[in-house]
User: Fold this.
Amino acid sequence: MLHEIPPRSGAAFTLDRGQRLTVIDPCGEQVSDLLAFARADTDEVISSGRTLDYLSRIFLTVPDPIYSNRSNIMLRIVEDVVGRHDFLLTPCSQDTFRIIYGDTDPHRGCFGNLAAALAPYGIAPDRIPVAFNLFMHVTVDGTSGTLAVRPPLSKAGDRIVLEAEMDLIIGLTACSALQSNNGRFKPIHYRVD
Amino acid sequence: MLHEIPPRSGAAFTLDRGQRLTVIDPCGEQVSDLLAFARADTDEVISSGRTLDYLSRIFLTVPDPIYSNRSNIMLRIVEDVVGRHDFLLTPCSQDTFRIIYGDTDPHRGCFGNLAAALAPYGIAPDRIPVAFNLFMHVTVDGTSGTLAVRPPLSKAGDRIVLEAEMDLIIGLTACSALQSNNGRFKPIHYRVD
Assistant:
């Protein structure tokens, strides 16, 4: 069963150990922020810092694992058509739109959408860490350290598949920031098998 | 008053808004992991993801601010002799030594040292995020994404000074990982003015 996350919104759902999550970019050039919390104890959460350290790499693809803050493997990438995602930045938020875009009436962003979707699972906004930002195309200049957010490399129908290595609560968005998705808000599709 | 953090250990202390924290590498090529929590509510903590996003840069120096997970400025770098620090990796831990070094009886690392030092302030280990790793020299290849931990660029006596923009609890270490400090455990000195 295919689920749709409408433009600028988010969803949360459970994913059992051994299940696979397929995230599809139906229109192309759209980003989806992914969070994962351990169902047994939601204080265990994906950790960019642990994952990048253990992989010695900032870009992830097949068959890379995503580690938790307790150094356990939460998810593993088992299929990846696009091969470019971001694991450096936090979800866009009211503050992102205020600070980076100068908006006077800022949208709640992926952060607000994730916080709302995760609230029924008892997960507080302060528990939202750096997300694994699917299809997000961030370049890094190794000399100056400059980051740039580029249009995603994903084309319509491109997908990534992740397999759960523990029982999880997943947060997932259709990204709300124009910089991330080349200036047009689009939906995200996902499926759990 | 100059304080010494002995090799492979850590400390925690308060820093008032307007006060300056000077961290000195007394022997050269040593790393110090820095954490900051808001004293008013320790659920507010430094955020690599917010800071790198708002700066559009992975390397920080004068006069860069360090943002919290709530997008408030916690600290600002006001003096920086070395100019190279890391804000990508979590503190080294038992798991780091197990996974990266293959140690059978792993040290608790900066993570364990920070957890112990922060416990009297009611801060749980799961609340430890990516640290701002002073003097840590991590290179990033922008094409492959490969990370490498190199010897710090700090020479004996080099310092960094940060000013608090809110009342804080600081966690600080003399790093426990041989990769980070060019193979020799050394102390760290600090001062609060």
Q: What stands out?
A: The radius of gyration of chain A is 15 Å. The helical segments of chain A are 48-55, 94-99, 109-118.
